[in-house]
Write a structure and sequence with these properties.
Structural class: mainly alpha
Distance between the termini: 25 Å
Number of strands: 0
Helix content: over 70%
Mean pLDDT: 82
Number of helices: 14
Order of helices and strands: HHHHHHHHHHHHHH
Low-confidence stretches: 183-190, 374-384
Number of domains: 1
Shape: globular
Length: 384
């Protein structure tokens, strides 16, 4: 699990560089909020929408090589984005980096599920904590580098990614030892996929992601609009992301003990008032509200991932790609529309839309059926 979590940390570290670079790119290229949102959309589409395809490949043929390759491509793409001479070159290399992220997640989450045993939500939270910390570190590490060296200094993020990619390549034989034998697969009766339940869950993740992508795009820019520095805005973003890492450690065990649905329901209930406090009150209260938001949103990523695997126990790579990828990517599309709304009306209105979106998630969560948490996972296919 340590190797998988470290890989998750590295690939999401590369992803966390983009929101840290964004306020500096906006200033350097004199971008509108819409164009800022387009960068987030490019990352979301590349890293999320195609994840189910990697998951399908993983389920059918086995693709453990995607773990080191995904981390390497994620870091290289973001380094090239930082070095790019024009906005559209940045978009291109953000997409390349996102494809590396998309390649890593389905295979990584599948092996994390294999290694987790019966306490799958707790185990998956340990896997997710790596990604949460990595994304946070991407913001934390990139900000002082870019302040000191400029946007092109962000290219240094490639170094830790390449080191971790080499480690994962070395660890492949060990990771393959977690693959369950074919005899461990559940019978068709206890392992049937439930597509209707999966569709509702994807709706929950999508509306939650509207709030999330809006916040990671506009929290720093909102602070700049209030007269604060870009560094201060990125600091608040880092606080929110680190709170998400802490929330992950709490949400996984809570889901194993109290159930998946209650944990997701509570998270969707607390997000809207917390965003309202951030908008209306700000200051210390606003910073505390971002801590609540980070813990509620990021903390439940692992829970929804586990639920997707339990709803689709015969296609857990595809399930992981859908829950992490497709639904989150669809939420990321909202970043462009929120940017257009901020340009045409104002940024505060866009943030209020972020606050309202999780309310739909409350209704959808109430419609979720039990997952059947004791279902077995189908074995990995290895080889051609």
């Amino acid at each position: 699990m340590a190797a998988l979590s470290t890989g998750h940390m590295a690939v999401d570290f590369a992803g966390g560089v983009l929101p840290a670079l964004l306020p500096f790119i906006v200033e350097e290229y004199d971008l509108s909020y819409t164009y800022a949102g387009l960068l987030i959309l490019a990352s979301a589409l590349a890293s999320s929408i195609v994840q189910p395809l990697f998951g399908l490949w993983s389920d059918r043929r086995g693709a453990i090589w995607l773990l080191p390759a995904g981390v390497a491509v994620g870091g290289i793409g973001m380094a090239l984005a930082a070095l790019s001479p024009t906005y559209w070159w940045i978009v291109l290399f953000v997409i390349v980096s996102g494809l590396g992220t998309a390649a890593y997640h389905p295979e990584g989450s599948k092996f994390a599920a294999y290694a987790s045993g019966k306490r799958r939500a707790s185990g998956m939270s340990l896997f997710s904590i790596g990604g949460n910390l990595g994304y946070s570190l991407g913001v934390i590490v990139t900000t002082p580098i870019v302040v000191l060296l400029g946007v092109r200094g962000g290219a240094l993020v490639v170094l830790p990614c390449l080191v971790v990619a080499a480690m994962l390549l070395w660890a492949v034989p060990f990771l393959l030892s977690f693959v369950p034998p074919k005899s461990a697969a559940g019978s068709p009766g206890e392992g049937d996929d439930r597509l209707g339940a999966m569709a509702i869950l994807l709706g929950v993740v999508t509306v939650r992601s509207i709030a999330w992508f809006g916040l990671i795009t506009f929290v720093p820019l909102w602070e700049v609009s209030l007269g604060n520095s870009k560094g201060y805005g990125n600091t608040l973003l880092s606080v929110m992301l680190l709170a998400g890492a802490a929330g992950t450690l709490l949400a996984g065990p809570a889901a194993d003990r109290f159930g998946r649905r209650p944990v997701i329901l509570v998270s969707n209930l607390v997000i809207p008032p917390a965003i309202a406090v951030f908008i209306v009150v700000g200051g210390l209260a606003g910073a505390i509200s971002l801590i609540v938001i980070g813990a509620a949103v990021v903390g439940t990523f692992s829970v929804t991932m586990v639920m997707s695997q339990e709803y689709m126990p015969r296609h857990i790579g595809m399930a992981s790609g859908l829950s992490i990828g497709l639904s989150i990517g669809l939420g990321g599309i909202a970043a462009v529309f929120l940017g257009a709304l901020a340009d045409s009306v104002n940024l505060e209105t866009a943030l209020w839309v972020c606050a309202a979106a999780p309310l739909a998630g409350v209704v959808l969560t109430l419609l979720l059926p039990p997952t059947g948490a004791r279902r077995h996972l189908a074995p990995e296919v290895v080889g051609p």
